[in-house]
Amino acid sequence: MKTITEFPRKVVEFPDMGIVMPDGCRLSARVWMPEDAGDDPVPVILEHLPYRKRDGTIFRDQLTHPYFAGHGYASIRVDMRGNGDSEGLMDDEYTEQELQDACDVIAWAASQPWCNGNVGMMGISWGGFNCLQVAAKQPPALKAVISLCSTVDRYADDIHYKGGCLLIENFGWASTMLSYSSRPPDPLIAGDNRWRDLWLTRLENEPFLAPLWLKHQHRDAYWKRGSICEDFSSVKAAVLSIGGWHDGYRNTVSNLATNIEAPVKGIVGPWIHKYPHYAAPKPAIGFLQEALRWWDRWLKDIDTGVEADPAYRAYVMDSVRPTRWHPERPGRWVAEQQWPSPNIKAEAIDLMPKGGKPAIVASPQNCGLAGGEYFPFTFGPELPGDQRPDDALSVCFDQPPLTEAIDIVGAPEVLVQLASDRRQANIAIRLCDVHPDGASELISYGVLNLTHRNSHEFPEALVLGETVSARVVLDQCAYRVPAGHHLRIAVSNAYWPMIWPSPEPVRLDLSAATLSLPLRPLAKGDEISFPAPEGATPWATETIRAANSERHVERDEKTGIVTLSIVDDFGELRDLEHDLAHGSIARETWAIHPDNPLSASGKTHWTQTLSRNGWSVRTETSAEMRSDGQNFILSARIEAYENEILVFGRDFEEKVARELV
């Protein structure tokens, strides 16, 4: 990345600008703006997050927000209430309070003498979600949005449920937020006499959100609120949507490009869950320059040509050897002026002979361990590996070797007819690229709780032995399969630990299956290009402990239990400007017996540390999830230490009834 130190306008920073909400709650904001904005007002760009501007997102903030300010914007990074250096409490994600706070910040910013009255909102993940939801509320000053790695449907395409199946991220993310939000504000900002009171109040009210999310196992009003797919027309701001093929949110760019009535453009690269000016696998792109084109058009009314850009720009990845991490993905950029594109045709492939014997799908419960993380994040061994171990536990339909290469661009689908011997059953379908030597690379996958085959809102129990039809939609993808390779469609009824298992072992009798494959004419090279990445001066730090990520799979030959152990040590760094040191370690353990779905368990343990000049705090959060045939059983604990003395402890325990999950 090229570091830019000289900008068209000189930048001034305000590390803690207090923004007081109508109810008196003070939100802490870090603000960058041109030094002369008081004389020459500028538009505002807002990022509104729970992830701590002081020590959480500071790496990316340093690259991004001063860059925007140097090009004539006031860039505002707000800690949401109940997090970081802000006051108040947070009791869930994407609450009406959170969205109203963002609307109030927008109104406040637009009224400042250094603002020209126009506001844009941006963010990745949580920030990508809430900027779309805020746009749907239509605050008058909000003219444009840049949303990355986000969703339009909080039930069907987030970290809670997928295809009506319970994602283990529902528990994993609740554990993460329990840890993230357990940390105190910085005494240098909150004050030596206030930080501790704010911290203890925060801890006393900290929610463990997994039970709440589990109480909404179907697509009810809880999930519809904040899902902009309920009314795409509510979004009037211009939307630039960006995603990555190695992220969990692969479908949003297509959904927005297809359905938003306001000006909308989409870009999907080969990236994990990161901003694309520093993301991997490479190639990264000049995201900040692309963002400026968007902001300049919609916030400054400058003709930058964005309206003539293709509706959908995607990176078609080449076939590579399967491995848990790819520092780069060879491929090429393609462009579609319309989306959905008339250039993409669906090819139907019957996977089973008509009238033949049904295929029996009865996967061991540990099928799925080659699937990787739901949304890879650490630049570590989180990607799907060689699929052969999972293929061996699945029913596979291998196609003939290709005589010429094909470009798959879009969402493959598989129509199935099957019968189940249990009232509730899951199905997972993977599309794989099989190399001539047998190596199997994951192209895309989809999962479906078969009781949700007709509706996520009103599931229907399966009738034992009755043949039903279902459509399994795989995630959007853009992938070139070379000549000499062949496609494999792998079908299982377990996908651990991506989804929680059915309460009983299941047998599916699969009698018909048809693959619908979206094919685009073979791209001959890059059809569009992006500038090289740029950024402002990187964050200045001292490394106290280097980051490290590890994954281990073990099988106990005595008990038969298969365990995935994960350690993500995010390291410890000291800020060279304000001297705050912060460190973080996440540990996860996922265990299951191949023959017993009720043996499934998940455990997490997070450690967070903050210190400066003899002052130190540490939080330890742990959580556990298991289930029986009728209930999900959850527990968690927070412990908080000040100078290694326990100052707070709290336990959570709850059972939630299973509802066809």
Instruction: Tell me the strand percentage band.
Output: 35-45%
First and last CA, distance: 46 Å
Category from helices, strands and their pairing: alpha+beta
The major beta sheet can be summarized as: 10 strands, mixed
Largest sheet strand order: 2-3-5-4-6-7-10-11-12-13
Mean pLDDT: 98
InterPro entries: AB_hydrolase_fold, CocE/Ser_esterase, Galactose-bd-like_sf, Xaa-Pro-like_dom, Xaa-Pro_dipept_C, Xaa-Pro_dipeptidyl-ppase/CocE
Keywords: Hydrolase
Pfam family, one: PepX_C
GO molecular function: hydrolase activity
Summarize the structure.
This protein is α+β, with helices and mostly antiparallel strands and 661 residues long.
Task: Walk me through what this model shows.
By secondary structure, this protein is of the alpha+beta class. Helix content is 15%, strand content 38%. It has 11 helices and 33 strands. It has a 10-stranded mixed sheet, with helices on both faces. Strands 26, 27, 28, 29, 30, 31, 32 and 33 form an 8-stranded antiparallel sheet that branches. Strands 14, 15, 17, 18, 21, 22 and 24 form a 7-stranded antiparallel sheet that branches. The radius of gyration is 25 Å and the shape is globular. The mean pLDDT is 98. Residues 292-539 form the Xaa-Pro dipeptidyl-peptidase C-terminal domain.
